[in-house]
Design a protein that fits this description.
The structure is a homodimer. Chain A is α/β, with parallel strands linked by helices and 468 residues long. Chain A folds into two domains: 222 residues, Aldehyde Dehydrogenase, Chain A, domain 1, CATH 3.40.605; 187 residues, 3-Layer(aba) Sandwich (Aldehyde Dehydrogenase, Chain A, domain 2), CATH 3.40.309. Chain A contains 15 helices and 18 strands. In chain A, strands 10-13-14-9-8-15-16 form a seven-stranded mixed beta sheet, with helices on both faces. Chain A has a six-stranded mixed beta sheet with strand order 5-4-3-6-7-17, sandwiched between helices. In chain A, strand 4, helix 6 and strand 5 form a beta-alpha-beta unit. In chain A, helix 2 runs antiparallel to helix 5 and helix 9 packs across helix 10. At the A-B interface, helix 4, strand 2, helix 8, helix 9 and helix 10 of A face strand 2, helix 4, helix 5, helix 6 and helix 9 of B. Strand 18 of chain A pairs parallel with strand 16 of chain B. Chain B: Keywords: Lipid metabolism, NAD, Oxidoreductase. Chain B: This is Aldehyde dehydrogenase family 3 member B2 isoform X2. Chain B: It comes from Sapajus apella (Brown-capped capuchin). Chain B: GO terms for molecular function: 3-chloroallyl aldehyde dehydrogenase activity; aldehyde dehydrogenase (NAD+) activity. Chain B: Belongs to the aldehyde dehydrogenase family.
């Protein structure tokens, strides 16, 4: 018995009758999403605190405000984004109407993870709804409190003939993926990303995969260690390190490491006090499985800062590891926790060589007082996104696309990029039903003279404002 | 290649935000046999312009072109970053087991699935330029001779072996009566009384496809043409009528100089017919009424759309070329090709100092700080600040 069959059929039928096409309908859905966030803010904060011990600050900044911002941006720009884009024409098509029309794909599946369970569900949803699709949302079953709110509260704010939340674990997700969707948007691990893409291939369904990796953070000798420590620590320990774009490991010289360690300790104390476990501003690990995984990583290298853990609380102290070997687990898998290993390199070249030997990460960071060093690292590596002298600030800018490359992902979103991701860009050329004489030169029997004229007429013209 | 600047919010005002285009690395281009120069070289242009190394796998079926691409083309390129590989389905399967950083495939939906499945093992992004049956709706409000000219030219170009050719006509029985003599007249004008001797009509690529097409001539009833010659792999410009939806000619992509006509009783029935089927690569609508053309555009979906003409839009490099649903994913031509073969990397360069500005984001937190942060995040776009 397939639990999803009826839901999917219902949503498809709604799409086919054109229910979701108008700007008014889409705007109403987006406003509904906005009201969901406003009406349930406290509920959402409580749920995030329950699932991940997120502080009100983190919940507001990285979950609610980001989602609200995307809703507002989409509402402000919806009609502009939906507009046909007229394109420059050739001589042969001067009298025609040539444009790109944005169309919804149809039935979209969004699969979200547990680490930013509101953000990573709602931000893609904004794009999918703005683009006029019907949406099936599959939130993570691991972030249980948010899952409950998304399943029980969110549908009340949206038109349920074109929106549904489905629940379940890996087995149910596998069943769901056997169905045909018109677009699949997945955020999660590369391992599951492959499963999703393979399932999508059976139906020729396009996908966006927001995956992960180990995000390198190079720290040059020419740096203020305290400033670097502040910035790296904030981005590393935010959400107890459970962030796909967090700096995963540091690359620096042994000399820099000596200067960084006391600076990092100072930062951690400033941020979380002498007893981080009692700070309201430090998150917790999502579940036992990940807690045990992370606790095992504490055995790699040598603990220079932190290293404490508490199973009952799923608490891991803000930790820095040194003397780490590349073959150790902490340098093999994405850490996704409040542990920062430091690998020593003897300068920029060795750092670049180290980075390029490995899979392309989702994010890459370089700290240096010298903009030349920063630019060099940028120029000689590849990654989803890059930030010089800071952490993942770049993802707060809706004007920049957010996505991976290589093993860290396919496709991108945020802001207008979300709308474009969930739209088919249809090339359109509307010609006159008359004026047939102009077409005579293309018909057989052919002549070299006609061919010459045709080639000239088809030549691209860079600016449509030049007179014929 | 230029970095594209992005707009900043209050948090990032003093920073440099831009999108940098980077090559993916090693790109595989798999090309078909019907436009063997175009469909090899046009993707190649984009892959090279974007800075990638390229492996080209031309079709083994268009042997003459395959030879030239394998023997002559590499002489014109730097062979450290460009290679042509040859072979059939088995060799291609082997090739696809390797990891590429991008795969660009033009061909059938069936093989498209195989390519995407292979790509999924390495999380390799793909562009798939596939095919389908491209519907061509002809309204009653039309000049049949003009429609006949335009449809015939695009249908019989390259002996119909074009992924964006009108595959079948949808019109009323009345329109069909007016179209048939017009189509005959056009075909005679284009190819003479004996099309087989016209220098302007192509031939079918190989025996396998010739036999396939010859079998399709048995569907419905031949209204125009219908002749074939096995030795020449010649199929006459043909129009079929009285065709049933279940017949092979209405089930598979024709890819030959055969045009079946299905009758519908108006635009609504045409739209309903079209929407019951897979989204095609191209869709055409002919009508003197721009309202009818716009309705057809509004209420259907396809890779691209042509109103009152065939695939003329292919000549405009400012329009993206690609499919949707079973007709494909991704797009190219012109700048779209460059963008297809580039990773768009979001970059933010922040000052190494000015640390005081960052204080508001660090714990321990206060309520006032939260308000400020929310406001700062929201203040994007070109408004002052």
């Amino acid at each position: 018995m397939d639990p999803f069959e009826d839901t999917l059929r219902r949503l498809r039928e709604t799409f086919q009758v054109g229910h979701t096409r108008s700007a008014e309908f889409r705007a109403a859905q987006l406003r509904g999403l906005g009201r969901f966030l406003q009406d349930n803010k406290q509920l959402l904060h409580d749920a995030l605190a329950q699932d991940l011990h997120k502080s009100a600050f983190e919940s507001e900044l990285s979950e609610v405000a980001i989602s609200q911002g995307e809703v507002n941006l989409a509402l402000r720009n919806l009609r502009a984004w939906m507009k046909d884009e007229h394109v420059p024409k050739s001589l042969a098509t001067q009298l025609d109407s040539a444009f790109i029309r944005k169309e919804p794909f149809g039935l979209v599946l969004i699969i979200a993870p547990w680490n930013y369970p509101l953000n990573l569900t709602l931000v893609p949803l904004v794009g999918a709804l703005a683009a006029g699709n019907c949406v099936v949302l599959k939130p993570s079953e691991i972030s249980k409190s948010i899952e409950k709110i998304l399943a029980e509260e969110l549908p009340r704010y949206l038109d349920q003939s074109c929106f549904a939340v489905v629940l379940g674990g890996p087995q149910e997700t596998g069943q769901l993926l056997e169905h045909r969707f018109d677009y699949i948007f997945f955020t999660g691990s590369p391992r599951v990303g492959k499963i999703v893409m393979t399932a999508a291939a059976k139906h020729l369904t396009p996908v966006t995969l927001e995956l992960g990796g180990k995000n390198p953070c190079y720290v040059d000798d020419n740096c203020d260690p305290q400033i670097v420590a502040n910035r790296v620590a904030w981005f590393r320990y935010f959400n107890a390190g459970q962030t796909c774009v967090a700096p995963d490991y540091l690359l620096c010289s042994p000399e820099m490491q000596e200067r960084l360690l006391p600076a990092l300790q100072s930062t951690i104390t400033r941020f979380y006090g002498d007893d981080p476990q009692s700070s309201p501003n430090l998150g917790r690990i999502i579940n036992q499985k990940h807690f045990q995984r992370l606790r095992a990583l504490l055995g790699c290298g040598r603990v220079a800062i932190g290293g404490q853990s508490d199973e009952h609380d799923r608490y891991i102290a803000p930790t820095v590891l040194v003397d780490v070997q590349e073959a150790e687990p902490v340098m093999q898998e994405e850490i996704f926790g409040p542990i920062l290993p430091i690998m020593n390199v003897r300068g920029v070249d060795e750092a670049i060589e180290f980075i390029n030997r490995r899979e392309k990460p989702l994010a890459l960071f370089a700290f240096s007082n010298s903009s030349q060093v920063v630019k060099r690292i940028l120029a000689q590596t590849s990654s989803g996104g890059f930030c010089g002298n800071d952490g993942f600030m770049h993802i707060t800018l809706a004007s920049l696309p957010f996505g991976g490359v290589g093993a860290s992902g396919i496709g991108r979103y945020h802001g207008k990029f979300s709308f474009d991701t969930f739209s088919h860009h249809r090339a359109c050329l509307l010609r006159s039903p008359g004026m047939e004489k102009l077409n005579a030169i293309r018909y057989p029997p052919h002549s070299p003279r006609h061919l010459r004229k045709l080639v000239v007429a088809m030549e691209a013209r860079d600016c449509s404002c030049t007179l014929l």
